[in-house]
Amino acid sequence: MIEVLSNGQIYTGERLVKDKSILIKDGIINDLIDAPNIPQQAKVTDCRGAIIAPGLLDLQIYGGGGYLFSASPTAESLHAIADALVARGTTGFLITLATNSMEVFMEAIRVVRDNPHPAVLGLHLEGPYINPEKRGAHIEEYVKIPEKREVEMLLHEAEGVIKMMTLAPEVSDPEIIRLLTSNHVIVSAGHSSASFAQAQDGFVQGITCTTHLFNAMSPLHHRDTGLPGATFQSGHVRASIIADGIHVDYNAISIAKKIMKERLFFITDAIEESLEGPYIHVRQPDRFTLPDGTLSGSNLTLLKAVSNAVKHAGIPLEEALRMASLYPAQILGRPDLGTIQTGAKADLLVFNKDFEVEQVWSNGTRHN
Question: Domains (ranges, CATH) in the chain?
Answer without folding.
Answer: 2-53+339-366 (2.30.40.10), 56-332 (3.20.20.140)
